[in-house]
TrEMBL record, chains A, B, C, D, E, F:
A matching Pfam family: RNase_PH_C
GO biological process: rRNA 3'-end processing; rRNA catabolic process; tRNA processing
Role of this protein: Phosphorolytic 3'-5' exoribonuclease that plays an important role in tRNA 3'-end maturation. Removes nucleotide residues following the 3'-CCA terminus of tRNAs; can also add nucleotides to the ends of RNA molecules by using nucleoside diphosphates as substrates, but this may not be physiologically important. Probably plays a role in initiation of 16S rRNA degradation (leading to ribosome degradation) during starvation.
Enzyme Commission numbers on file: 2.7.7.56
Family annotation (InterPro entries): ExoRNase_PH_dom1, ExoRNase_PH_dom2, ExoRNase_PH_dom2_sf, PNPase/RNase_PH_dom_sf, Ribosomal_Su5_D2-typ_SF, RNase_PH, RNase_PH_bac-type, RNase_PH_CS
PROSITE patterns: RIBONUCLEASE_PH
Binding sites annotated in the UniProt record for phosphate: R86, G124, T125, R126
Gene responsible for this protein: rph
UniProt cross-references to Gene3D superfamilies, sorted A to Z: GHMP Kinase, N-terminal domain
Protein name: Ribonuclease PH
Organism whose genome encodes this protein: Sporolactobacillus nakayamae
Length: 250, 250, 250, 250, 250, 250
């Protein structure tokens, strides 16, 4: 049995509370088991230098943890004077994932800033951040539509993320809590869209390995979890997002 | 009339929610009007180098704002690579204020870390941080008592903080919200203990000035607000803190 | 008796030597007892980005100590790679204080840079810096008048600063030297203008407290000291500064 | 046809030149098409603080590009004052990959430093770095064996890495050169060991997506390429590495 | 006898391999004994801010060592977060030396970037860098001529550099290898042009001293070595560089 | 005629004021024409890590300019967050020069810190710093003798420095002021000891060149200037320094 009594293909309890902070254009608190992340989306009317004059938008993400989001206190990255490699990886992942379901041309010369701040951590903070950030982004675009800044919602598909892993005792499992994550040899984060297409697969043996059969089981568990997460998103966003064929942004 | 209809000597609505985050030894969410700050207290079993071997403890505070705690998005200090002067001033203020009511000898060779993270800002974030941090600290010490790490609560008095200012129209007012703060010429932060003693007075004309009579009114408004805040603290902490004569830590 | 035999309401010997360094528009060496600070004022024909196009000026201050201004050698902030929190607090204080007596509109789109470099320290370096910086600023504006860069001196009032404190033996005292400062529980810096108005009150118990009666005595001592400092400024500046009603710069 | 006339499942020409630099314990120049990486392995007789006293070793990797390894000159990371997110991701990937095939207990309290310096880039620098680093590491361990620092080679399996992608015209292809990489929607880096087990799968749509069928083809292309790379490694290392069952290092 | 059997006035074996890296406008690998430096020259179509609008060009140099260019591994400057004083000195020296033989007006508003990356070090890396950089620069200008970016080669004279020193046993010697350099009291780097004129003399006792007679011998050894180095440059560059009277760039 | 009417072999007026700052073990203000440098020497009872346990001392120097030491205001290096290449070169030069005349064994496991702070600059700040630092160092050692920290003065010889240059109109000249320095093609800093031995020769064409004859004249001018500077040092230090044969510290 898993520490919290879940079946191996069972997600933790997930809540997404919209309009959590009053100032951002889009804001949610996503809760996945004991993991809690504030996801804020801000729209800025300009793009980074490398995109100027190209009539397309950009999405960039930042991720941080409060020092006591974890059992032991972490040094604040602002005190450290630099962002760790782990944080950079996560920020790049969130940004790439969101850009894959957005029509950047339709966004116009605007930057969408996503801030994911983990206030309580119990495993899966990067995948919870992606799922929460997707909803915050959709809410921000909804507000931009209402303010007539944009003519049409620039989102092409739903998007969600979860983690899977191979536990030495339980075998392949879905949505690892921290205790599971730290005893699991193989750990994989999967991001998918509403068409069952992969956006990102990041599987690492973390000093162990996995074979082709285990890979197949992990991918199948992830697909089930992502289907359920997208249903939760739909319950909040209603008919805001209309699925379209996802081309490329290049 | 003030923007939110308050009388000039009226605090905003204040809530202090204990045990907000599960991991820290002490944790509260303090809400003052629309200002919300997570205050976490952590106990570490060692002291900074300059205190080693002196058999006394230390208290240090860190303060940060989420980028969208404010109407416009702020650059994250970890991305900026350094902490701003404003943040440093606030951190030093919170630390000094807490140390003034703690018997550091009784704490033993331990460091109490206070993390104040503003998730939503509407003026008065530094004074809300001090008031919230005091409660988080008391809860952390309570846990240390229960775990028998310390023999007696090392707190010598209650502590709270508020802001006062001279508004060009309303004159002297208590507990400024952001809109008031930005139109007020003179701005003062007051920290007091449960014996009506001053811990800190920081009054600045911010390019204006104030005379002796205005100063007297401001100090009187602050005392009233701090009395009310200490009542709210007492409602949470019960008879945990016993007021004692406050000596000096030097 | 105080270590240097002064009465409790007596300033140390103060000299302000104008035109100390040849290059700056305004330059003084201020000596307060054994504390010596070089204050240089530079006028730059542009303003920081946040003020561009507003037809008003700005004043910004930097403060530093030579490594051996103190009995023990301090690490140079340029070697450390960053400015300490203490330095930032002092720089912000000096800038705010000077701006409170200057008509920034009359200055035009110019920045006045103040550099306060402590070459020898014996307590009170931040208040000596403010008093010296005021004179350096006035000399720089005088030169700008002579060069017809500005039409009228943009200074609205005199300005000076001093420290007061509660000594465990001597009680409330004026103008603390280092030895007194380090044995004093309560320490307060006061900045006032030529109309007996407060610009800044920074009183901190530094882990101790002070009551209302002590506060009243401290404020009265500070007023006496500032009157004397302004007389010394007037002896140098003659009839250059004409006192006007001090409005606000906002 | 691909720009250099290769079949879709064909690697570029690969050479690994051992003993390229005289000072390191292990050193190779790996050439993959026009991509050239110097991989140096250094053995240090101590471990990072988090591992002290645990009688096991550690492997850490650093990666850099000469400024003109690429068609346009890049800013040197030492001038920039910090390492980019991309570099950090690659360094962490190389370290994890190597640790997955090494018995860290058998290494003893030693750190193996891997330095991968790209002197000429034409796509696939991170996978070439992993393959080259594996050989440099094996040569360093061989020297440590000869010097009797270690009793037995601590390598449990061969290791190699390659890239695969979905090209809009050619479909799934193996070992992308820069021109292909920049026109390819989907890009995946695969690291495998000598038992056909996955060490790492990093597949990203880079703002596009891929489906289950494409994933299967990509994994199969990668396996073919990695088989060929391991043959090249064996030609250099001879019977130095003996394949063993790969457990976990946790 | 010197460690490698050379006479006291004998250079080590020197090779300069042109077109070493494919991307830069000019690229060489210079080998001096066991010292190997990749020198790349890049032409950028703009100048630093301080030169804009002056219709003249600029030359700037960067220098780095691979961590294992040396017997012990050095910390990478990008990890350290800053460039050491030694590196800065060398970079400034290389830039000054090259600028002394180039007509910056003829270069037009362009920056020539020189990157010297030491892949293997055995003494004399800074002088090898200058000699190699000169050839890389000439090759880059040749390409700019061919592309008709410039009308005439902006080089006014040949340029080469070497080191000399006073060895406690062998006395004055030419072109020190690392072993000699570390046992030599006095160490001097000399840069000269093709007219036997000095560009730079950097002689330091490194905690020892030298007298006038030793200085004369050292200068004479250096001249002999530089003559030989310029012959090697001429063998590569043919009649590309035509010696002219060297004026000043000021 | 030179701008200040000097002959080509004439030093500017030089004063060295001992005991300028009260706290350091040794302190002077050196004035060379309009150049003024505060040189402070501090003795610390420990050595840098690389020297621990070797029973010998170390000398390290730091150099800085006040922002308005120059006609235009320079950015403070502490605000910039790093020390410039120019500053690093000068610091290394001062340290090397002083170490060349000190018996580091006799100093014991102590570090002598030299701080040279230029308060007013008019050319020649690095050579004035060396000359002033020598006297400050001697005074600090004198105090250490008096306190019986050391048994014998560890100085082996006098030391002084000056600059020489080739002016386009006046030809070779001694001790350049700023105006001369900025119009001079060739610029050379010479450090010598009391035995007419060279400690350091730093001659740079700064984009120009100089020939053997010019070099000979420059060296002769420098020797004359250094003789005069050492006379000034002797007038202050009396018979404190006894010239000995200068060996090497290696």
């Amino acid at each position: 049995m898993r520490p919290d009594g879940r079946a191996s293909d069972e997600l933790r309890s997930v809540q997404i509370q919209p309009d959590f902070i009053i100032h951002p254009e889009g804001s949610v608190l996503i809760t996945v088991g004991k993991t809690k992340v504030i996801c804020n989306a801000s729209i800025e009317d300009r793009v980074p230098p490398f995109l100027r004059g190209q009539k397309k938008g950009w999405i960039t993400a930042e991720y941080a943890m409060l020092p006591r989001a974890t059992p032991d206190r972490n040094i604040r990255e602002s005190s450290r004077g630099k962002v760790t490699g782990r944080t950079m990886e996560i920020q790049r992942l969130i940004g790439r994932a969101l850009r894959s379901v957005v029509d950047l041309d339709r966004l116009g010369e605007r930057t969408l800033w996503i801030d994911c701040d983990v206030i309580q951590a119990d495993g899966g903070t990067r995948t919870a951040s992606i799922t929460g950030a997707f909803v915050a982004m959709a809410l921000a675009f909804k507000k931009a539509l209402e303010r007539k800044q944009i003519a049409k919602l620039p989102i092409k598909s739903y998007l969600a993320a979860t983690s899977v892993g191979v536990h030495p005792v339980h075998g392949p499992i879905l949505d690892l809590c921290y205790k599971e994550d730290s005893t699991t040899d193989v750990d994989m984060n999967i991001v998918m869209n509403g068409h069952d297409e992969y956006i990102e697969i990041q599987g690492t043996g973390e000093e162990a390995t996995f074979n082709e059969k285990e890979l197949a089981t992990l991918l199948s568990l992830a697909k089930k979890g992502i289907h359920e997460l997208i249903e939760i998103e739909k319950a909040i966003l209603g008919d805001l997002v209309i699925e379209q064929k996802v081309g490329t942004n290049k």
